[in-house]
Amino acid sequence: MISDGRKENVQDIVAQIENFDYNSFFRSVQPIAAIYIANYFARKTFKNFSIHRDLKPKNVSKVLPPPELKEIDREIDFESICAKEFGDKILRFIKVIIENFNPEVLNNFYNNLKTIKVSSKSLVLRNFLLQTNAVGTYSPKHNEIAIATETDDTTITHELLHMASSFYKDKMTRSGFNQFYLKELLNIGNGINEGYTELLNQRYFGGTEYPLGTRRAVSTYGYLKLITEKLEQIVGKEKMESLYFSANLKGLIQELNKYASEEEIMKFITDTDFILKYLSNKRPSLIENQSLTNCINRSAIFLITNYIRMLVLQEKEGIISNEELKEKANDYIKSIPHIIIRGKYEYIVYDLNDIDSSIESALEYRENLYASK
Ligand SMILES: [Zn+2]
């Protein structure tokens, strides 16, 4: 695959920066400039180290099963919720959730609802310190939502969806498809989690429709939303929604494992985490942009390949005809834009060669399927 060559390229650049002969370089420049340059390279080296780390596929063995299912109390104290800040909005949220989902998958929702804390506050300082532009936050550890003073109703429903899908125990957070231990130490699935949260927000609460299409501008969440929409077509809507609310990343991986290897799945998850982290960067470095292009390309190929593999399996099981397979594969590919644009940057999502290799790989899967009986 294309990926390996490009990955080596990143490693090469990192190595070049690390092996740079700073001492002889500094002797030839003025002291103040030297300090500035040293600082510049130190920052760059660290940044490139973190890009390298963020591209390294995570290990499937680190993904934990969801919290054990216990009998839970599904009583809701409407009065106390109504008395909270944003009480009316929380009540509307509860109504939509109860109307649309099976109570069996809503344990996290009922548990967290009992103690949820919601407040509005200025997120200016937080955004400045973390270099983000969040309009809302949810802390699974404290079961607490903070909403920026000036934002719309879909911010609170986005954060409430995080609340409805989170479980915190022993410093380990499971939130939808995201798992993390001590913040960043072990953080898996944040990309698909944010994308899917926004997809559900839009589906059930009319969340922001981020502009996207062929050669259209892209927002980070908009692109990740598209990725998870395409992922859901492989997994199935009902299945994927219940895995999300039960915070079952492991279940999602098992579901995808029908079509893709664990290694391929973990690479896909790592790539989408990378996209979340770097696509919002306004002034990306050359390496960041190269790596982003690779991640965007690889994640699209993963989706196309595994969607066709899923169709192949359906064809074998007599659920769809060969004609339908071709039609569905065609529609699916057409629904993914070839190029996305962000500011002055363009990212090629896939080209014709990628489609060829996706189809070839799906045909291989087909052969194995028929050979193994
Ligand atoms: Zn979020």
Polypeptide structure, described:
The chain is of the alpha+beta class and 373 residues long. The protein has two domains: 92 residues, no CATH class; 180 residues, no CATH class. The protein is built from 16 helices and ten strands. Strands 4-5-6-7 form a four-stranded antiparallel sheet. A three-stranded mixed sheet has the order 1-3-2, covered by helices on one side. A three-stranded mixed sheet has the order 8-9-10, covered by helices on one side. A hairpin with a 4-residue loop joins strand 2 and strand 3. Helix 1 packs antiparallel against helix 14 and helix 9 crosses helix 10. The longest helix has 31 residues. The chain is globular and about 60 Å long. The two termini are 29 Å apart. 35% of the residues are buried. The N terminus is likely disordered. Bound molecules: zinc ion (ZN).
Set down the secondary structure blueprint.
Layout: H1 2-18, H2 22-27, H3 31-55, H4 78-83, H5 87-100, H6 107-113, E1 117-121, H7 124-130, E2 136-139, E3 144-148, H8 153-164, E4 166-169, E5 172-175, E6 178-181, E7 186-188, H9 190-205, E8 216-217, H10 220-235, H11 237-245, H12 249-256, H13 262-278, H14 286-316, H15 322-334, E9 339-342, E10 345-348, H16 352-372
Parallel strand pairs: 1-3, 8-9
Antiparallel strand pairs: 2-3, 4-5, 5-6, 6-7, 9-10
Helix pairs in contact: 1-3, 1-14, 8-9, 9-10, 9-13, 10-14, 13-14, 14-15, 14-16
For this entry, give a set of tags.
single chain; 373 residues; alpha+beta; 2 domains; globular; disordered N terminus
